[in-house]
What does this fold into?
Amino acid sequence: MSILPVDQVDEERWHQKRRPVALDGRETLLRRLIEELVDNAPLKGDKYQRIMRRHVQGGLPWLSKSQVITAYEELCDLDVMEYSAEVITALQKKPTRSQAGVTVVTVLTKPYPCPGKCIFCPTDVRMPKSYLHDEPGAMRAERHAFDPYAQTAARIAALENIGHPADKIELLILGGTWSSYPRKYQEWFVKRCLDAMNGVDGETLAEAQTLNVRGQRRNVGLVVETRPDHVDEDELRWFRVLGVTKVQIGIQSLDDHILALNRRGETVQDVRAAVRLLRLAGFKIHVHWMPNLLGATPESDVTDFGRLWSDPALRPDELKIYPCMLLPNAELYEYWQRGEYKPYSDEEILDVLVACKTQVPRYVRINRIIRDIPTTNVVAGITKANLRQIAQQRMAQQGLSCRCIRCREIRRQTVRPAELRLRVDSYETDTTTEYFLSFERDDERIAGFLRLSHPHRDAEHPFSELQDHAMVREVHVYGPAVPIGEDSQGEAQHLGLGAQLVQKAKEMSHEAGYSRIAVISAIGTREYYARHRFEVDGLYMVGETGD
Ligand code: SF4
Ligand SMILES: [Zn+2]
It folds into this structure.
């Protein structure tokens, strides 16, 4: 097994003399500075100086570009920002092609009513339900009048302007409840995003997809968000027609009493049924969970969070923890005014976050903690924007750690082949045996992983074509990837990790008696799986386990 350093360029810089930046509570200011710099890249002429000057007036010390990069890396380590090589590229004078990886392009759907009546959910007439116009991302979408083509094309152009290849794109479609939009709109929306990636307009969605299979900028993941009570077999088949690979669903609570009090309009049983179907259909399952709802206490929240893992019908793959935020344009505000709702104090939220993070299984990724709403919108309750960071520090002081995937990802460190071990964890769900295969170092830093499902064989599969098939639900390898096409010549050896994981999944499935294995492939990963002897078969790609 030979594996290249996955992040060599960063590593070199890491060893250069670093002048640490004292963050001392200035995380939000720094984050805004970084976002503005990235939005305005390339930073030609005196653009950097002009932006920096404004932020110095706003309370930051003058920082060099390399100090901004250092500060950014610290913010990522503290869970305040998500690591993306794009930021490094935007700030460095000489962009390096090898720094590219999968680029996330976030697009918002047009404002549209949601069938939900959740009392905590803000209504902003300028935005799709649950979004605020001053949220990061929302502003960009509004600038483009929510046009999917314009949103996608603008992001690609911004990336390519700074020399950052956008050849592997995960498309994240946000906005209320995707399933409540008319299907015609959904189809048009996805097609227009693909048209922007392809650089030519397809006649139909199917044509745009075909063009994307070998396109310069490939769609390697497609994420939508919906409500559990919209998830049924027909909807999931439709998701596959669109090319969806990951579904975000709001769970919020696993207590029927609390769900009813907050008028979620669904029950825990709906949630369990949705997660079960999503898993059997091979989707990556990303859930939102919300402490501090009406009727909850810090103690009940910690118990509620435990249900996510103790209930075999749940056990999702990814998670956002969004403590309920009291916003003036949500119905909950009236409850608060009547004295019927009390937001937790920062201390109470911190206790909940620490207790939750310490009980997360190692196969889960916590993508965010605390929603990215400017705290100026919050009427009462959370006052600090950097609660994530304080929670991390508190855990470190108490000798606790979060073992979720995000906290263990190898980002800028060199990976040496001899250091990596293939580890296999397994856990049961109500309908499958799940395997989490990961390449890890002894310190549990993770270089790549694969999610494999073995559906229980005695049960009838709701998707008859998948009966008795093993299923690869996700393959993820960290570090910058070379452009599509080059890895076929064996140049990106770290991509060999993905190949080894897929091979191992096939072997394990063969030994367990599954002769066929399916993969939920995005349009732009079809060629990759074809090289691993998978063929398109209906809505999935399927291969033999014994080859
Ligand atoms: S389902 Fe989601 S978007 Fe709709 S009202 Fe409830 S929280 Fe808001
Ligand atoms: Zn974590």
Confidence is low (pLDDT under 50) at residues 1-19, 480-495.
